[in-house]
Amino acid sequence: MKDKKALTAPCGLDCFNCEIYEENLTEELAASIHTKTGVPKGEIACQGCRQEDGRHYHFPPEGCATLNCVKSRGVELCCNCTGFPCELLAPLADGANSYPHNMKVYNLCRIKKIGLERWIREEAGHIRKNYFTAKFIVGRGQGMPREL
Length: 148
Prior knowledge:
By secondary structure, the protein is mainly α.
């Protein structure tokens, strides 16, 4: 696997754990995406936000607004910006069951608190898995709080 630091998007998403990241993409998923979107199977695998310069089939033609913003501000991650958090990171209910976009601010806060290396090593996969599989419990979030 490539450098996980380079595969952490500025918005806090863990590209290295994404199901369309080139090393994770299965033939079955590529076929499913092709059927649903018409995108040629050979164009579905992603190399990561930074490596693709925010210009993959699932982004608008002008690229990722968040990536463009951090580049213009000269920061590596949104949590290093004086404007953090901003409207580019705002959570949305739309697509929340399919896309990990609502993890961004939480991930960035954890990165800021414990550091990027530790977040990659100890938390990134756990956070993504819980996002898609854990049950929400009112007053507890994803269940009983764990030691953080």
